[in-house]
Design goal:
about 210 residues, mainly alpha
């Protein structure tokens, strides 16, 4: 008797499953098709992204080689276009090359390119903080105290590995403006900071011992 009940239950369950697939055949086909398309789409997207990255690398290398060889025609525009591609690797490299080689000398234009990378490019957290620090370093020769601190605030108000670098930059900034009290405050922050870069902490101690000791 029990075996008969088990057989009936099994047959009933099988029939329900069969009916489910028959009644929902179109829906299941659509769902499976969508899943297949998503999988294929992902691999196609990754392939295109890889090809675009290779193309961008070639463009960057070609532009820098042309500049070094003396053929500076269109180098500036090409590097700016690479920055505007918002690539996490080659956009920052293109900007640094523009700055290091004085290809663009207008401060506002450089800062606009920095903002594209900082605000519109998908970067890892600490890479973004590094770009922010480099922007502050670039601006430190001509920007006001408030503007420079505003640039560095995302780093100073965080636990970033670049925080001690940012504090040291501000310490040096005020030191060369002969504002020793403000400079002292930033150097002392480096000393008490738990994750200060060892070299930066050493330089801060040297500055405090040589210029602020009584």
């Amino acid at each position: 008797m029990d075996e008969d009940i088990v057989i009936i239950n099994t047959n009933t369950r099988t029939e329900k499953i069969k009916n489910f697939f028959i009644n929902n055949k179109k829906k299941l086909i659509i769902v499976i098709s969508v899943i297949i398309l998503i999988i294929f789409g992902f691999f196609i997207y990754e392939d295109l992204k890889k090809k675009n990255r290779i193309e961008l690398a070639n463009r960057y290398n070609f532009a820098t080689i042309n500049f070094i060889s003396g053929d500076k025609t269109k180098v500036e525009n090409e590097l700016i276009e690479i920055v505007n591609k918002r690539d996490r690797a080659y956009s920052p490299l293109a900007l640094y090359f523009l700055i290091d080689n004085n290809i663009i000398i207008e401060n506002n234009r450089i800062n606009e390119l920095f903002d594209i990378i900082i605000n519109e490019t998908s970067l890892e957290k600490e890479i973004k903080n590094l770009v922010i620090f480099k922007k502050a370093l670039f601006n430190s020769d001509f920007e006001t105290e408030n503007n420079l601190i505003q640039i560095l605030n995302p780093i100073i108000n965080s636990d970033s590995i670049w925080k001690s670098h940012a504090l040291y930059l501000m310490g040096e900034y005020f030191y060369f403006k002969n504002e020793k009290k403000k400079s002292n405050e930033f150097f002392n922050q480096i000393i008490v900071l738990e994750n200060s870069n060892p070299n930066i902490k050493l330089e801060a101690k040297k500055r405090l011992n040589s210029d602020f000791s009584e």
